[in-house]
Amino acid sequence: MNLDRNALAGELQYQMSRSSGKGGQNVNKVSTKVEVGFSIMDSNLFTDEEKQQLYSKLIHRITKEGLLKTSSEEERSQLLNKQRVIEKMARLLENALKIEKPRKATKPSKASIEKRLNDKLRKSLKKINRDRKNWY
Length: 136
Fold this sequence. Notes:
About 10% of the residues are buried. Helices cover about 45% and strands about 15% of the residues. It has helices at about 5-10, 25-30, 50-55, 80-95, 110-130, and strands at about 15, 35-40, 65-70. The chain has a three-stranded antiparallel beta sheet with strand order 1-2-3, with helices on one face. The protein is of the alpha+beta class. The radius of gyration is 26 Å and the shape is flat.
């Protein structure tokens, strides 16, 4: 699913603060760190089923207020950090909406079993040969 970054940017709640990263005196003077909050339940971008899926997959990242939060302070510019955090939030939401196919259990093939046992034997012999008692 490709999420519309512009529509997402309109629904985000921005908060700027001073960054702790690189930038010299710039760090002490300019608020370049960008934190965003996104309310999944109040969003118009997703259907009710998608909202439930997002909420269940991202429950550990949602605050008590119901906001999904992320931040960026890597860049020296507030604008670049804002773009980076929008992209980060979009990727987070897109990955949470992906439906994973259930894994089918399979048996290992005879060749893979034989290879594993041969590797195990070879490693065992290598370690036995390291022992000084076996040096005659």
